[in-house]
Design goal:
seven-stranded mixed beta sheet; mainly beta; globular; SH3 type barrels
């Protein structure tokens, strides 16, 4: 899982899709928690005018495609926590 965690720092602006390919939002920024230099999650904003964000933990990420700038998740969109 460390390969995915190291790539989280360069994912700002990527599109996030759930396990069925539905749009979740765009990565706003990586979020740091347990360690200072390694992000634990991504802050994902649902839309341009949306105030709510979703917290996408690193362990829910299935794949990060740098060419198409898409972060694919292993879970459904409804199982991702929202925060303000």
């Amino acid at each position: 899982m460390s390969a995915v965690a190291s790539d989280l720092t360069a994912t700002t602006g990527f599109v996030v899709a759930d396990n069925s390919g539905r749009f979740v939002g765009r990565v706003e920024c990586p979020m740091y928690g347990t360690r200072a230099n390694i992000p634990d999650a991504l802050s994902v904003r649902g839309g341009r005018f949306s105030r709510h964000r979703r917290l996408v933990p690193a362990n829910t990420i299935a794949n990060i495609d740098v060419r198409s700038r898409v972060v694919a998740l292993r879970v459904a969109r409804d199982s991702i926590r929202r925060f303000l």
